[in-house]
Write a structure and sequence with these properties.
By secondary structure, the protein is of the alpha/beta class. The protein has one domain: P-loop containing nucleotide triphosphate hydrolases (Rossmann fold). It is built from ten helices and twelve strands. The strands form three sheets. Strands 6-9-10-3-11-12 form a six-stranded mixed β-sheet. Strands 2-1-4-5 form a four-stranded antiparallel β-sheet, with no helix packed on it. A two-stranded antiparallel ribbon has the order 7-8. β4 (about 60-65) and β5 (about 70) form a beta hairpin. The longest helix has 14 residues, at about 145-160. The radius of gyration is 18 Å and the shape is globular. The chain starts with 6 loop residues before the first strand and ends with a helix. The structure holds deoxyuridine-5'-triphosphate. Deoxyuridine-5'-triphosphate binds near residues 23, 43, 46, 49 and 89.
């Protein structure tokens, strides 16, 4: 079967509407199916903005964002959402049951599929512990589950749709280090052929990525593996030590 989910940014520049200064300048990188690319950098560096260009929350001012060789501006939204799942920084749960929330992107998903996704997302235990299980009610905005539970339910929701590309925007930050590690191991096994782009704050979350992009003030200042960057990048060293 043809592998799909190749992501390429070509000299991408982006500014928010009405703003003069670009938030992203001359961003180029490729993420291949089966690879994990991590993005790290200080707050405001442009990490979330970069992710948002793929599902077209915004469009680049210049340069191109390509999905399987086709500029995303030439794809319709349905084609993009079929292939790309994004777990945003503040993931949103709506009022309804856990099952409703998990089936958001795939209404026909079976209970077994939901439990598989919950297991990978390290959320099966706490859903099982609820008397009503998948029928447990979530309040508007998910205020009756913890931040970490909300993140894991939103990761499970993304898994249910079986996308080619996963975008995780700081999706592991509310998890303790051990749960974070377990989740990413399970994710790696489940999504071996997918393209994964992770924005991370913790070095442990991103250290095993195939490629790490160090973003500073909207530019990729360094790139490489964890080991390479420890040798070559003073910006990365500062992040590791902070
Ligand atoms: N920005 C806007 N409008 C928005 C979102 C962001 O003007 O709707 C600005 C704020 C910031 C820059 O864009 O100066 C980059 O923000 P982004 O959220 O992309 O940065 P980040 O690297 O994801 O920061 P953090 O780690 O705090 O999430």
């Amino acid at each position: 079967a043809a592998r799909a989910g190749r992501v390429e940014f070509r000299n991408v520049t982006f500014a928010y509407p009405g703003a003069e200064a670009p938030v992203l300048s001359d961003i180029s990188f490729t993420a291949e199916p089966g690879q994990t690319v991590a993005i790290i950098g200080s707050t405001g560096a442009g990490k979330s903005s970069l992710l948002g260009l793929l599902p077209r929350l915004y469009d680049a001012a210049s340069g191109e964002v390509l999905l399987d060789g086709v500029p995303v501006t030439r794809l319709d939204r349905a084609e993009i959402t079929q292939r790309v799942a994004m777990v945003p920084q503040r993931p949103y749960l709506f009022s309804g049951t856990i099952g409703h929330n998990l089936r958001f992107g795939k209404p026909e998903a079976t209970e077994q599929e939901l439990w598989e996704a919950l297991t990978v997302a390290q959320a099966a235990d706490f859903v099982q512990d609820k008397a009503a299980g998948l029928d447990s009610r979530i309040s508007q905005g998910g205020t009756n589950v913890s931040g970490g539970q909300r993140q894991r339910l939103c990761i499970a929701r993304a898994l249910v749709t079986e996308p080619k590309v996963y975008l995780f925007d700081d999706s592991f930050s509310a998890l303790d280090v051990a749960t974070d590690a377990r989740l990413r191991r399970a994710l790696k096994a489940k999504t071996a052929d997918a393209t994964v782009i992770i924005v991370g704050q913790r070095v442990s979350t991103i250290a095993d990525a195939d490629q790490i992009l160090v973003l500073d003030k909207g530019r990729i200042v360094d790139r490489g593996t964890h080991e390479e960057l420890l040798e070559s990048s003073s910006t990365y060293q500062e992040i590791v030590e902070s």
